[in-house]
From TrEMBL:
<dbReference type="InterPro" id="IPR001480">
    <property type="entry name" value="Bulb-type_lectin_dom"/>
</dbReference>
<dbReference type="GO" id="GO:0051707">
    <property type="term" value="P:response to other organism"/>
</dbReference>
<feature type="disulfide bond">
    <location>
        <begin position="300"/>
        <end position="317"/>
    </location>
</feature>
<keyword id="KW-1015">Disulfide bond</keyword>
<dbReference type="InterPro" id="IPR000858">
    <property type="entry name" value="S_locus_glycoprot_dom"/>
</dbReference>
<dbReference type="InterPro" id="IPR000742">
    <property type="entry name" value="EGF"/>
</dbReference>
<feature type="domain" description="Apple">
    <location>
        <begin position="348"/>
        <end position="432"/>
    </location>
</feature>
<dbReference type="InterPro" id="IPR036426">
    <property type="entry name" value="Bulb-type_lectin_dom_sf"/>
</dbReference>
<feature type="domain" description="Bulb-type lectin">
    <location>
        <begin position="26"/>
        <end position="153"/>
    </location>
</feature>
<feature type="domain" description="EGF-like">
    <location>
        <begin position="290"/>
        <end position="329"/>
    </location>
</feature>
<dbReference type="GO" id="GO:0016020">
    <property type="term" value="C:membrane"/>
</dbReference>
<dbReference type="Pfam" id="PF08276">
    <property type="entry name" value="PAN_2"/>
</dbReference>
<dbReference type="InterPro" id="IPR003609">
    <property type="entry name" value="Pan_app"/>
</dbReference>
<feature type="signal peptide">
    <location>
        <begin position="1"/>
        <end position="25"/>
    </location>
</feature>
<keyword id="KW-0675">Receptor</keyword>
<dbReference type="GO" id="GO:0004674">
    <property type="term" value="F:protein serine/threonine kinase activity"/>
</dbReference>
<protein>
    <recommendedName>
        <fullName>non-specific serine/threonine protein kinase</fullName>
        <ecNumber>2.7.11.1</ecNumber>
    </recommendedName>
</protein>
Amino acid sequence: MAWPAIIRYATVLVLLLLPPPPCATEDRLVPGKPLSPGATIVSDGGSFALGFFSPTNSTPAKLYLGIWYNDIPRLTVVWVANREIPVTNTTSSPPALSLTNASNLVLSDADGHVLWTTDVTGAAAGNATAVLMDTGNLVIWSPDGTNLWQSFDHPADTFLPGMRIRIRYETRAGKRLVSWKGPDDPSPGSFSFGGDPETFLQIFVWNATRPIWRSGPWTGDSFSVQVQFQMVISVIVNLNVVNTKKEIYITFSLSPGAAHTRYVLTDSGEYQLQTWNSASSAWAVLSEWTGGYCSRYGYCGPNGYCDNRWDGNPSTCKCLDGFAPANPEGWSSGRFSPGCRRKEALQCSDGFLALPGMKSPDKFVLVENRTFQECAAECTRNCSCVAYAYADLSTSRIKGDVTRCLVWTGELIDTEKIGVNAGSETLYLRIAGLDAALSLAWFKFKENPDDRPLMSSVVFTLENGSTTLPAPNNPGHYGQRSSDLEQIRDRTENSMNSLTLTNIEGR
């Protein structure tokens, strides 16, 4: 036999004797076939992989069981199982992930010590399977198709399309995004993102227990935004709030064919919308909610508000009507935390000023089953009530009470003027010295021409100080001026990144 033939024969023989590479292409784990370091489970469409990873170059390597994007060149982990207990990988004691006959995923070391488990209870013993879906969701399915457990219910730092960030009404329990401790440390950090368990109506980012950002109360809107990056990447994000009798949650979906897009809570506390830019092989930050001064919780202090400007001028802190800076010298030098105090004490007969385009303050009380007129009356007859806001939720995904009456009795914290867009509403603020009848007449004059009082009634009120007017109707829609829209369009087209509101719709 010639040497070339012998070499080819020997090469083939060696290849046949070598074990197959530890890389599985199946999308599932079954009992009796554990997953070890070096092997992966890949979702059916190839978008995600499940396996062991090491974020650092420590020796011996600390391993975590996680899920990451499989079809991009940069390791981007979206879920981690054993965040608090990394595994030390050695040849004599490799970890393994197994699916037990009791339908539980169990991560253990070579000595059998359980490091992490799914804790499925009540499932009948049988041929369950753990499947990695092409959404990035790891699901344990029973033989009859029942979902016994899923990773989407136990998020890490990433909010993926189809995932739900929820709070259950009965227990006030909900899952939060929790940041990594550092860029290379998946252990739980100090920042978290989730729904407010006290009100069920707003979203927070916390640093430990201290709020650092707040979405504002839900106004009933679901909305779709088209986000563009450097005029190259375009993706439509459809964000929905769903309210049932048992829970309230937020979820989102993407336009068909969109690049990988996710919300992520970074280790420094930024809540970002990111999309994968294949041209630069990097994540592009499309939007960020916790970066600016106005986004900081309570930045302008009690009874102050941050005026978000659309005319090119910088945003700034201002006092609400009827208030003045508590520390004028500090206020003029940019120290806003003391906030504002009333110029005059309130009287029970004082009226309310309508402030449209606001993100309503925190620390409200929800009064259920009230019409707009009843909400206004609820605050008017309570001398301690300093403000109220109303929203009609009848066109949203909600079951039960479709009204949303909020009242405030103390200091107004974390208020913003955000213009007329999704999440904004009219805040009705009690003003010292404002005659109740005059404020009502002015409100009706501004909102609906059909409801404007006769001029003779206004003159009579001015001459006599008070009069009796009928209860107000529901507030009319406050529309943004076309010139304002042109300013927004000009500003976003000239920026590197733009976020354009394309549709606001009740769901």
